[in-house]
Design a protein that fits this description.
The complex is a heterodimer of chains A (564) and B (336). Chain A is of the alpha/beta class. Chain A is built from 23 helices and 16 strands. In chain A, the strands form 4 sheets. A 7-stranded mixed β-sheet of chain A has the order 6-7-15-13-9-8-12, with helices on both faces. By secondary structure, chain B is mostly helical. β5 of chain A pairs antiparallel with β1 of chain B.
């Protein structure tokens, strides 16, 4: 079970369905789905001469080309496609819908197919961007924040909800699973989403989801971002998460470095894909220190390579050099990419004193000493090197951790106000407590609810910590472990639709986790590490988007505006 | 979904093509109607033929009824042989004609089918019509055959009665019967007929069958009668042969039944042995179940013994556990 692999298989099957010269027609969403799993050169190798957006005004008709159309089955897409089919812009159409296509839309398209130019219509269930092997994102973007607000759910955000349901359905279909569905009880958003998925899977499209009985059971677990509002706010120190935190990684695994003027032109936008870049695949979960060592090793290796290629004395050497030159070029591009990223990261980190900030963050979240944490936060807030957003993050974390200490929280917001942070942003402290506070949570976020949790924390603090910057482990880690053992409490995570009977069905062999409000790279790391353990339970994690601290704070601001 | 596919996909091409084809025919009305008209033409011809055949069959069955009535009414004294012969000839011809036209009808239908025109339902309907007509014709033919058989039987009976009254039997009864009845004019005509009728050569060999030609008829018209008479006798001869074959087939069937019954007897015997074996097996199973029960009982007794032995240790474990817990609590509360 490998989501990105399944998507890659879908895309290559799609492109191989038509022989000869062809054009790939996508919509705004599917173009990301394709480019997340396949590079431009891979696509070109399959005789694709043109990649087009469906809604862009077509140039002149090109009946000599075959069109491979990969779009979401929406009304606008089908309308635009029907118009093209009627005009016969291309000689032959092979249509692939990324999800279940309603009969009405199929009829609409068929009604315009007067010249029989549509040769094939299929549904390939790839309706979510496969960010990584076992990670998917729905890229909700703007509408992500509205998902988090159950009060307004029923009205304006129907589209976003439907998108989530469709995305989850396509993931389940591509994994060929009909899951048992459960959700977090405390979250209205998770409940409604789970109910919608349940209706689709067990009622509306029951036949489609009726897979032959296979070994093991699949579970779908719908969680709410606000059950763990801490993880997106923390500074990250693993490679992928760090890049996303500081520069931002788009859904197609691209990093935009255009704002850094000192960089070479070809490094202004780099691609970080674990599928194509083996160095990145090996080090995406490595922390900052290990990463430095790895980059150094990479550079050393490359230097050796360069020296070897410099010694050209005989004809044989020359032949060998010419042969290995393309590979050499690729390697040099890769090395300069990672070195550039690394140097930019270290520049930003030292400039913004992120290490110091992160230490305080970890102390607040993981430590047990409230007074000490308060003093550290106050110190950090007075530190002029810290950016405004770092300060805000610190206060938000402190508020979440020590929710009951109203006086200290008030002191901290007072300090923020002195530093001229806007009223709206300070209001976030109340907003985050309202949505993600103790009362709204299901899971044991800070490990202080049960006696056992507190005890293990004490034992942990006695042992000392390996790395002060990575003490925190996200809540999803314990959730995954409990779910894999079938030990999630039925009261906290009830089932929608049928619930498994028997111990074997209660322990999933495949676990799909969807986080309403977005997933963080730290959580995908936990998921990948869990999968690497081979416990007999495979985890796929996804979210309505991939969050970093900035986008999470932006979502919170929008949420606050909507609340008013 | 392809068999080799690693991930799931759903192919809706066929569905799409079906919808598109429907949409195209809807968009292109002229073409569609033209084809429909052509189809209609064929269908009309077919329907006309079918109804003509239906009418023919009806007519034939009316004739048959009349013939039946005639055959039943005719007694020894008042035998309307000529009318009967005429009617049967007419019916025979009619049936032949109907048969031919049915074949033609079937051809028409096959032509329509080969052109691939018309929907499946239409061709089904045509098939049903042809079948119905065939059935009706077959019934009519059967009735005709029965009537003829009845007629033969009654003639036979008449012959026998005549033989009782007359001196001679067998082939000579023909002439004797005629003389006896003393209808000279008719007898003369008959003899002339014997000379002229081509089919009468066979007649001499089968007196019984032929006799019906010579029953007394006061109003016999003479020469012209010979042809229908000849036809009828031929028919009756065929019937006689058929009867022999029929008897043979019956005998064969009887033998078959006899054989089947013997086989069945064998099977029943086998079954009886099997049942008795099963009985033995059941008894053995019963014994085994009893053994198992005894074993389970002893196992339970052993388990109880073991429970007693471990419950004595349980207190010790609980004490140790309580000490550990209290120490742990102390550690958490005071040291941490």
């Amino acid at each position: 079970m490998n989501l990105a692999g399944a998507h890659r298989e879908y895309v290559s099957r799609m492109l191989e369905s038509a022989s000869g010269m062809k054009v790939l027609v996508c919509d705004a969403v599917t173009v990301n789905i394709v480019s997340a799993v396949m590079s431009q050169s891979d696509v070109l190798r399959r005789e694709v001469f043109l990649i087009e957006r469906l809604h862009e005004r077509p140039h002149e008709d090109m009946p000599h080309l075959k069109a491979v159309v990969f779009v979401r089955p929406t009304r606008e897409n089908v309308k635009a496609l029907a118009k093209q089919v009627r005009r016969r812009t291309y000689g032959e159409y092979r249509v692939f819908f990324s999800n279940i296509c309603p009969d009405g839309l199929l009829q609409e398209l068929a009604g315009e197919d007067i010249g029989s130019v549509v040769a094939q219509v299929e549904e390939y269930y790839a309706d979510a961007t496969a960010v990584d092997r076992n990670v998917f994102s729905l890229e909700l973007g703007e509408s992500n924040s509205s998902l988090m607000n159950p009060a307004q759910w029923s009205r304006s955000v129907g589209m976003a909800v439907d998108r989530c349901v469709e995305g989850i359905a396509s993931v389940l279909l591509s994994l060929k699973r009909r899951p048992f569905i459960r959700h977090q009880r405390s979250s209205e958003a998770a409940r409604r989403l789970a109910a919608d998925v349940g209706r689709l899977v067990y009622e509306q499209e029951a036949g489609l989801f009726d897979f032959p009985r296979t070994e093991g059971a699949a579970h779908l677990l719908v969680l709410d971002r606000f059950d763990d509002a801490v993880t997106p706010l923390l500074s990250q120190w693993t490679y992928q998460a760090m890049v996303h935190e500081i520069f931002g990684i788009t859904s197609t695994n691209r990093v935009d470095l255009r704002h850094i003027k000192t960089l070479r032109k070809d490094l202004r936008e780099v691609v970080l894909s674990a599928h194509e870049d083996s160095f990145f695949a090996n080090n995406m979960y490595a922390n900052y220190g290990d990463l430095g060592a790895s980059v150094k090793a990479l550079v050393d290796e490359f230097q050796q390579h360069t020296n070897m290629s410099k010694k050209i004395e005989s004809i044989d050497d020359m032949a060998r050099f010419v042969e290995s030159y393309p590979e050499f070029r690729v390697k040099s591009g890769n090395v300069s990419k990672h070195v550039a990223l690394m140097s930019e990261l270290s520049a930003v980190i030292s400039q913004r004193q992120l290490m110091a900030a992160s230490q305080v963050e970890q102390e607040v979240v993981c430590g047990t000493d409230r007074a000490g944490a308060f003093a550290q936060v106050v110190d950090a807030l007075r530190n002029p090197a810290l950016l405004e957003e770092e300060r805000l993050k610190l206060v938000l974390l402190f508020a979440l951790r020590y929710e009951k200490e109203q006086n200290q929280i008030a002191d901290l917001t007072g300090i923020l106000m002195q530093h001229g942070i806007s009223r709206a942003r300070i209001g976030l402290v109340r907003t985050i407590l309202k949505h993600g506070g103790e009362a709204a949570r299901t899971g044991d976020l800070f490990g202080n609810r049960s006696f056992l949790g507190r005890a293990s924390k004490v034992v942990g603090s006695l042992k000392g910590v390996e790395n002060v910057y990575t003490q925190h482990s996200p809540l999803i880690s314990s959730t995954i472990q409990a779910a894999a053992k079938g030990a999630l409490k039925q009261e906290d995570y009830p089932f929608v639709g049928p619930s498994p009977n028997g111990a074997a069905a209660g322990k999933p062999t495949e676990l799909v986790i969807f986080i309403v409000g977005g997933v963080c790279y730290e959580e995908t790391k936990v998921c990948a590490q869990f999968n690497a353990l081979n416990t007999g339970c495979h985890v796929v994690v996804g979210g309505s988007t991939v969050l970093n601290a900035r986008s999470f704070v932006d979502d919170l601001l929008e949420l606050q505006n909507a609340d008013r | 979904m392809r068999a080799i596919a690693p991930a799931r996909a759903r192919d809706r091409t066929d569905e799409f093509c079906a919808i598109a084809a429907r949409a195209r025919t809807a968009l292109d009305p002229a073409n569609g109607r033209g084809r429909a008209r052509e189809g209609n033409h064929d269908a009309r011809a077919f329907a006309q033929m079918a109804s003509a055949i239906g009418r023919g069959i009806h007519r034939t069955s009316l004739e048959l009824e009349r013939l039946n009535a005639l055959a039943k009414a005719s007694s020894l004294m008042d035998d309307k042989a000529r009318e009967i012969a005429e009617a049967s000839a007419v019916i025979k011809m009619e049936i032949q004609r109907l048969n031919e036209s049915l074949v033609e009808l079937q051809n028409v239908r096959a032509r329509g089918g080969a052109r691939g025109e018309g929907s499946k339902t239409a061709s089904d309907h045509d098939g049903a019509v042809v079948d119905t007509l065939k059935n009706r014709l077959a019934t009519a033919t059967k009735t005709f055959k029965e009537t003829l058989t009845n007629r033969q039987a009654s003639i036979k009976a008449g012959e026998e009665r005549r033989a009782m009254f007359g001196a001679s039997a067998g082939p000579s009864a023909v002439n004797a019967g005629l003389d006896y009845l003393g209808d000279d004019a008719f007898a003369r005509a008959m003899r002339a007929g014997i000379g002229g009728g081509a089919g009468f050569g066979n007649l001499q060999g089968s007196g019984a069958a032929a006799a019906n030609a010579f029953v007394p008829r006061p109003d016999a018209p003479g020469q012209g009668v010979s042809t229908p008479y000849a036809m009828q006798t031929q028919d009756q001869m065929q019937l006689y042969n058929q009867n022999a074959a029929y008897a043979d087939s019956r005998q064969e069937a009887l033998q078959n039944v006899e054989r089947t019954i013997t086989e069945l007897g064998g099977i029943f015997q086998q079954l009886a042995t099997m049942v008795s074996e099963q009985g033995e097996l059941a008894i053995r199973i019963d014994e085994n179940v009893d053994d198992t029960l005894a074993n389970v009982d002893s196992a339970q007794a052993q388990l109880l013994k073991y429970l007693n032995s471990i419950s004595s240790n349980r207190w010790l474990i609980m004490k140790i556990f309580a000490v550990l817990i209290s120490f742990f609590t102390f550690f958490i509360v005071f040291i941490a």
